[in-house]
Design brief:
The chain is mainly α. The protein folds into two domains: 89 residues, no CATH class; 87 residues, no CATH class. The chain is 58% helix and 0% strand. The chain contains eight helices and no strands. The longest helix has 24 residues.
Length: 199
């Protein structure tokens, strides 16, 4: 491209930053339409009657900031963050407890002591996994550091009794989910405009 050559509009459009979350859904869809048009122009892509393939929208969201929505800043919360391992261990124990309760109901037995039995089984399973991992990586100090210590039976019981919020690290990103929905709606609008006979 020579110095006098005109720079295509799609270059500036695709370099735009993520959209602000304070914008309305309609405003975001309008802007996504502009950015999708620029993306299609860049690759000389014509929108087919069947709509834009999901893989194109997914790759655009994942790799191009222009198709993302900026995440809102989360307010700080009190207390230590919930560790994913504790959440997983609690989920295991609660699942095991429900199995024991169903078995007790079928047999007409008391449910007393089932919580400890569930905790003991989960402790035994996880301790075995931990011990196997430590034996396998006994000569690898770096790997040993990443092996998580199994919570005690009492700790597992306490986890079962507590109301533990879902770990923040495992929660879906609201901004990413919103971008996914609104980008799909933008593509759907562009399809109707490109192929009005299909509307």
């Amino acid at each position: 491209m020579t110095e006098d050559a005109e720079i295509p509009d799609w270059i500036e459009i695709l370099q735009r930053p993520p959209l602000q979350p304070k914008l309305s859904d309609e405003n975001i869809i309008d802007e996504f339409c502009v950015r999708l048009a620029a993306l299609f122009e860049c690759y000389h892509y014509e929108l087919p009657p069947g709509g834009c393939p999901e893989i194109i929208l997914g790759l655009a969201r994942e790799h191009l900031p222009a198709f993302q929505i900026e995440a809102r800043k989360k307010l700080p919360v009190s207390g230590a963050p919930i560790k994913q391992q504790r959440w997983a261990v609690r989920a295991q124990a609660m699942s095991e407890l429900r199995k024991l309760e169903r078995a007790a109901e079928r047999a007409g037995l008391t449910k007393r002591g089932l919580q400890r039995r569930a905790a003991e089984k989960v402790f035994k399973t996880n301790r075995q996994i931990e011990n196997n991992a430590r034996r396998k990586h006994k000569d690898d100090p770096a790997a040993q550091k990443w092996i998580r210590k199994t919570p005690s039976i009492k700790t597992i019981q306490n986890l079962m009794a507590a109301k533990i919020p879902f770990p923040a690290a495992m929660e879906p990103d609201p901004a990413s989910e919103r971008a996914k929905v609104l980008l799909w709606r933008a593509a759907e609008r562009m399809q109707r405009q490109a192929h009005p006979q299909l509307s």
